[in-house]
Every structure is written in structure tokens, then in C-alpha cells.
Amino acid sequence: MSSQSDSPSDQRDAMQQRHEEAANEVLPEHTDPYIGGDFTAVAGEETFETIDPTTGEVLASVGRGREADIDRAVEAAWSAFEGTWSEYGAGRRQRVLTAIAETIDEHADELARLETLDNGKPVSEATIDVRGTAEQFRYFAGLVRGDSGETMAEGSRYGQVIEEPYGVVGQIVPWNFPLLITSWKLAPALAAGNCSVLKPAEQTPLSVLRLAELVDDVVPNGVINIVPGYGEEAGAALTGHPDVRKVAFTGSTAVGKQVMKSAAEHVTDVTLELGGKSPVVVFPDVDTRKAVALVSSAIFYNTGECCEAGSRLFVHEDVADDVLDGLVAAIDDMTIGDPLDEETDLGPKVSGEQVERTMEYLEQAQDEGGQFLAGGDRPDDEALAGGCFVEPTLIEGLDHDSGAVQEEIFGPVLDVFRWEDYDEMIELANDVEYGLAGGVISEDITQANRAARDIEAGYIWINSYHDLVPGLPFGGYKQSGIGRELSADTLDHYRQTKTINLSLR
Ligand code: NDP
Questions:
Q1: What's the CA-to-centroid distance between 230 and ligand 1, angstroms?
Q2: Does residue 3 have a pLDDT over 60?
Q3: I want to staple 476 with a disulfide (CB 3.0 to 4.6 A). Which of 171, 322, 461, 481 is the partner?
Q4: Looking at domain 279-469, what is its CATH homologous superfamily?
């Protein structure tokens, strides 16, 4: 371990060495697509590199899947569906899902460290992701046994309503929660009786490939297929594939629209979990210490790379100075650094491209008269110079129409607005194209509930944030998406209804 007295270059070397050692321990053995139960080289024989955003070093070269590989994976998935998986009853599917959850638990530490290497998130947060990943499989394993069909006997008519799986579904996952969002996709799809072809994000394919290695023994061949690659190649081939009967996507709203268009070609059903620009409303009756902790976690958790991040703060004028002073102090106290260190609060962003994107928004905010109460730049710490770090940032004074307020920055940047008039505040809170989530902080539950009802969004937390539990549906209003994940409804997104109307006459 390096110490405070080490020079920045010594600290950087020590961090690099720690990451190399961790990589040697946890990288997957295979980095080619996982198709039909085997890791096989991509048809085009090309690879792309995945980078550790903390050190800038290459972690692995990964097979660059394209259309031919997607075709192969879809074929393998259909073959598994027709040959094996469709014969599995709910009980056997439940056992498979439970076995996946147990396997994840057994390898939790290794998976968390791998996620940290590939994504840059603090290992303490990656550990929470891995726990949540296992929980998804467990939740859907439980649900699948509670399912029964409906019947209607009326006169000489006997009707049955049954839910059937689509067969093969295509699933596309982003880089902010690679493993966790993979479970949000795979667990309900498999529980409902489908086989999956899943494409991880190009920045973070490793934990998903490692998961495939780990569950190879417990899942029949071809039920899960993983094809890493670029969005415009492997992703587009999957969403427009004529034999994929359902597409589920998490990512940006811009790409979500393309996915919808591409799926429209074959009238394929879609579920979309897209961007957000969520408001957090602070009422004057709060305990400011608690409010500061909640607001800080709402925006800075996972380095602000959360679709539900609370990135616009509406704080009542009566407590605004106290809350903002508290936030500045909380930012000062944050440990920014090596995400493999358990004490780290804020790791690097996922990639250099994402740093540039955030910095462009910060420059725009500066040009438009934003006052930076904290942050606003890359950290002035030479030890972190090789990584994709950005300071946690608080900006006040921007017009609500500004790009930095309206658009998803996906970084540790909070726009602050003071309010006095409730109706004006709610109008601004709703004045974005997104409607994924929101937060309300107040001791007065009637008042908090009214605000929760008035905010146009699919998920509102009162006096908490980021608390996503299986059983409570998650998904967006407006341009934040279509469909809900994490709940019993999700099973229905992966099934189609068949009615059999039998005449007994
Ligand atoms: P994207 O929406 O581009 O990526 C999400 C996933 O979609 C990735 O697996 C990506 O592949 C894939 N993809 C990209 N293009 C296509 C396509 N034409 N057809 C099918 N799949 C495609 O997000 P980015 O990684 O580019 O991030 C950009 C911004 O998106 C972020 O800054 C953030 O604002 C937002 N975002 C929102 C997320 C959310 O959870 N709401 C998650 C991630 C990003 P590939 O990795 O190869 O590009």
C-alpha cells in the first residue's frame, strides 16, 4: 500500500500494480462470444480492447461480434428453446435460476472486483451490485412457481388463457451496471421460459462473460448466449433480427429510439429503460444533515452514472444555504481515488469519452453563467492523472432551459435551484423530456406524498434514494422508457397471451 507521504508517481505506480494483481486474479479466461454453451472465436476474427478506467491500461481484448455472430447466437438460442428449455416446467426453471443465484453468491468477491476493474465503480458499490444480481435471480425463481393460467367455463364454451414465452429474446445492456442490469434482463426472460441473446456494452463486457463461464454448468447450453461487440454492429443486428421475438434495452434515449425503429421492421415487442434527469425536492421542514446525505447519494452514487440519478436539486429557500453548505462540506470529505480501495467514495468515470462528455457540459454551464459551488474540473491530483476522474460538482444559477440542466450528463454533476412557490417548483421539476425517477425529502408525509403524486415520473422515493427492490416496479414516464422491470409485471413483458376457446357443443 502507498502512504500519504509517497510521491504522486509512487502512488500511481502502486495503484497500477494493485490493479494488475487484481486483474491476474479475476479476469475471465474467455473473452469470445458465448454461444450454444461454448466460447467460440468471432466470424470476423477481430477484437476490441476493454480498458481499466482507473489506470488507462488495457484489461483484455474481446471478440468483436457482428451480424454473423448474432445470427449464430439466435440460431443456438432457438435450438436450445426447441430442444430443451421449452420442455422445462416452472419447477426446473426455478432450480436453474436458484443455482445461478447461488453461483453468483459463491463468487461475489471476485465478480465485484472484476466489475470495479472494468467499470471503475468503487468496490463497495460493486459488492452491492453483485448482491442485487443474485437477488434478481432469486426473486424471479420465486415468482415463477406462483403462476397459473385462467379459465372461463360458460355454457358450452370453455376458455383457457395461457401465457407463453416468446422463444428467443434479444437483450442489450449498458456499461453503468453491467452485471446488475444483465440480471434485470436475464432473470425474468429465463423465468418466463425464453432463451436469450444478450449484448453487453463495449466498455464493460468482462463481468458478463465471467458470469457465463460460472453458470455454464448450471444452465443448459444455448439458453444464455452472450455476444460482445459494438452497438451499431452486434446491437443493431440483434434488435432488427427477424427471429428475435422480443427486444429489451437499457441505455440512452437516443439509442432507445433507434432500437424501437429497428424492432418495428418485424413488429418486435420492445421494453425500453432509458435516460433520466430526475428532480430531488427538499422541503423546509427537513433535518438538513439527513437531507445532505440523501441528496449527495442521489447524485454521486456510482459517480453519477445512474439512469435514476437525482441530478436536479430543488431546495426550499429557507434551508437552501444550510443544505448547500452541507453538500460542499460532504464533497470536501469525499475520498476520490482507487475504486479497489474499500474507503473510496468516488471512482473514475467509465471511459475517456465519458469524461470529455461531462467536461463539455461543464464548459457549457460555465459559459451560460453557472456558479460552481464545488468541483467543475478534473481532480488536481497527479496520482489520478492516468484515470478518468471528474470532481463532484455543484452548479447554481443556470437557466432551467440550459443544456446542462435538460440533458443527461451521466456524471457527478448536480444542478441546484432554490424555490419558494410550490406550483412553480413542480412545473420546473417536470419541465424535462424525461420522467424516470424523483426524490422528495420532508418530515411531513402528506406534503411529501402530494409532491410524489405531482412529479411526472415512474418511481419516486420519499426520504430515501436508489433503493430498488424486487417487487416494486421500475421504469419511466415520457421519454424515459416503456415497460417496467423488477416486478411481477416484468414476466408479462417476456410472454405473449394465448386464448384457447373450446366449444363443447
Ligand atoms: P448507449 O445508449 O449508446 O448504449 C447502451 C447499449 O446500447 C450499449 O450496449 C450499446 O453498445 C448499445 N447500442 C448502441 N447503439 C446501438 C444500436 N444502434 N443498436 C442497438 N444497440 C446499440 O449509451 P452510451 O454508452 O453511448 O452512453 C451515452 C449516454 O447514454 C450516457 O452518457 C448516458 O447519458 C446515457 N446512458 C444511459 C443509461 C441508462 O441506464 N439510462 C445507460 C448508459 C448510458 P455499445 O456499448 O457498443 O455502444
A1: 10
A2: no
A3: 481
A4: Aldehyde Dehydrogenase; Chain A, domain 2 (3.40.309.10)
Verify whether ligand 1 is closer than 6 Å to residue 125 (CB atom): no
Confidence (pTM): 0.97
Whole-number Å distance between alpha carbons of 250 and 273: 5
- Measured in whole angstroms, how far is the alpha carbon of residue 175 from the centre of its chain? 7
The tens digit of pLDDT for each residue in 390-403 reads 999 999 999 999 99
Residue 407 CA: which ligand 1 atom is closest?
A: 34
State in Å: Cα 252 to ligand 1 middle: 5
Residue nearest to atom 38 of ligand 1 (CA): 251
CA–centroid distance, 51 to ligand 1, in Å, is 17
Residue closest by Cα to atom 40 of ligand 1: 307
Closest Cα to atom 45, ligand 1: which residue? 231
* Protein residue whose Cα sits closest to atom 29 of ligand 1: 252
Dump pLDDT digits (tens) for 163-217. 999 999 999 999 999 999 999 999 999 999 999 999 999 999 999 999 999 999 9
Cell 467499470: give the residue. 119
Give the integer Cα–Cα distance in Å for 150 and 340.
51
Q: What is the mean pLDDT of the segment spanning 312-333?
A: 98
8 A C-beta contact, residue 85 and residue 75: no
> 250: CA distance to ligand 1 center in Å?
7
Q: How many whole angstroms separate alpha carbon 311 and alpha carbon 280?
A: 8
Size (the chain), residues: 505
Residue 145: band (very low, low, confident or very high) from pLDDT cuts 50, 70, 90: confident
Residue 236 CB less than 6 A away from ligand 1: yes
pLDDT band at 147 (very low <50, low <70, confident <90, very high): confident
User: CA distances (Å), 326 to each of 142, 318, 331, 415, in order?
Assistant: 43, 14, 9, 15
The closest-lying atom of ligand 1 relative to the alpha carbon of residue 255 is: 2
- Give the residue, out of 255, 271, 356, 406, with the most ligand 1 atoms within 8 A of its beta carbon, to mutate for a pocket test: 255
User: pLDDT tens across 237-289, in order?
Assistant: 999 999 999 999 999 999 999 999 999 999 999 999 999 999 999 999 999 99
CATH of 8-274+482-497, one of 3.40.605.10, 3.40.50.720, 1.10.472.10, 3.20.20.70: 3.40.605.10
Locus of grid cell 451480424: 67
Domain boundaries, the chain: 8-274+482-497, 279-469
For ligand 1, atom 22, name the residue with the nearest CA.
Answer: 231
What is the pLDDT confidence band of residue 4, given thresholds at 50, 70 and 90? low
Q: Is pLDDT above 50 for 1? A: no
Active-site residue, selected from the candidate residues 115, 273, 305, 456: 273
Single out the residue of 349, 351, 423, 362 nearest to residue 390, CA to CA: 349
- Is there a catalytic annotation at residue 307? yes
Residue 355: how many other CB atoms lie within 10 Å: 19
Catalytic, 443? Answer no
Q: What distance in Å separates the CA atoms of residue 183 and residue 170, rounded to the nearest whole number?
A: 14
The domains spanning 8-274+482-497 and 279-469 adopt the same CATH topology: no
Per-residue pLDDT of 12-54, as tens digits, reads 999 999 999 999 999 999 999 999 999 999 999 999 999 999 9
